[in-house]
Design a protein that fits this description.
52% helix, two-stranded antiparallel sheet, 118 residues, two-stranded antiparallel ribbon, 4 helices, mainly alpha, 6 strands
Length: 118
């Protein structure tokens, strides 16, 4: 199954990971969470490589990296391209029915949509 890097981040921020779920669904979510976390580590490594390759300098307060104007445009484009990559992930989508009576907010449904099926 292909999933965008940005969608992986969204899935991992869902509050559903803190809810009591049926065992099968909880296990499937844990596996997906582990897969996505590994992919996001790779994303972060590549993001830092882009920053270093373009001489990014950390601000004094450590909140962001600074670049020349030309470098900023190149870095932003490269990171956006990386952020929007679709990655093949060995996983099965989770059925919405698998959540049983667990209440899912509209926000959770939106964040989980890349891994859900009817």
């Amino acid at each position: 199954m292909k999933v965008k890097i940005s969608d992986m981040q969204g899935v991992l921020t869902s509050s559903v990971f803190n809810k009591s779920l049926p065992v099968k669904t909880s296990y499937a979510l844990a596996k997906i969470g582990k897969l996505f976390s590994e992919e996001l580590k790779t994303f972060e490594e590549q993001r830092m490589k882009i920053i270093q390759d373009h001489n990014g300098k950390l601000t004094e307060d450590g909140s962001k990296y600074e670049f020349t104007d030309e470098e900023r445009d190149v870095v932003d484009k490269a990171i956006n391209e990386l952020w929007n990559l679709e990655v093949e992930v060995a996983m099965d989508p989770i059925s919405i029915a698998g959540f049983g009576s667990t209440e899912l907010s509209p926000n959770d449904l939106s964040l989980l949509s890349p891994i859900l099926t009817d």
